[in-house]
Description:
By secondary structure, the chain is an alpha/beta fold. Helix content is about 35%, strand content about 15%. The protein has helices at about 25-30, 45-65, 80-85, 125-130, 145-150, 160-180, 190-195, 195-210, 290-300, 320-345, and strands at about 70, 90-100, 105-115, 135-145, 155, 185-190, 220-225, 250-255, 275, 310.
Amino acid sequence: MQGQILLTTVVGSYPQPEWLINRQTLGRGMVPRVRAQELWQIPDAFLEQAQDDATLVAIRAMEQAGVDIITDGEVRRESYSNRFATALDGIDLAKPGTVVGRSGQSVTVPRVVGPIRHTRPVQVRDVAFLRRHTDRRIKATIPGPFTMSQQAQNDYYADEESLALDYATAVNEEIRGLFAAGADMVQLDEPWMQARPEQAKHYAVKAINRALAGVQGTTSLHMCFGYAASVKQKPNAYDFLPELEQSAVQQVSIEAAQPRLDLAILKALPSKTIVLGVLDLNDMQPEAPEVVAQRIRNALSYVPPERLMIAPDCGMKFLPRDVANRKLRAMVLGAAIVREEVTGG
């Protein structure tokens, strides 16, 4: 392992092979909130084996790029959230619901018809598989309780807060299993806190803290403005971010490259490690390492190096694989440039 400052990681996803998933269909449609089995190219009898093989490809690519803390590439998922969200009790899978999505369009989502309950491990095998096949530090990602409450039609609970808190209890049970399976850190994906900041200000931190109650291990929370594949123009400021200083997470992961984020906001999170997005995934031209290095230097004006980690912006699964690999390598080299400047060697 390199020096303990300016470590590199990924947000979660890595490009799935075209032999595994229909990438054209994946890129054309909205992000699936319910199951989308039709995306897979492999018959059900061989799908898990094929996903294992593709996961090994993702692991080796991240290792070869030199990434310090890797994931399984979320290779087994149709989206970052739907695999876990549809595995909980209380959901009517046969009759889904609809909500208005971040883009203002109607989106098919899980329909909540009873108490949300975690009854079985969902991603524990994924983490155990990853742990067996790498000696690097590993991160597991899981959809957060606030985001899942916004990506569901609530036909049972009296209010959204009650729904989010039961999602938080379910997430807490899964997180404990992920750490037990060998995860070095677990990340909550909570992009809808940015999309619905008013609701988030009422109960998102409460839900996050319940999801992490009693958890022993390094935890992170990721927020973004939406995938570069579908969102081309992004604001340069978050509507919900300083509030996370009051949350139990130790790390806050944000995209900053594509939106050209005003990094002064990072001063509002003095106790958190910042996982900074330094790769613009709307640009198919891989960054030069020096470009990455300058983005890191800009953040060091507001965050000391011991509280800064380096990542892409989110949505790497939509990139061509060769572009993703070259961008990851540039990220690692750019971080090395600044690490040497900071440490003197």
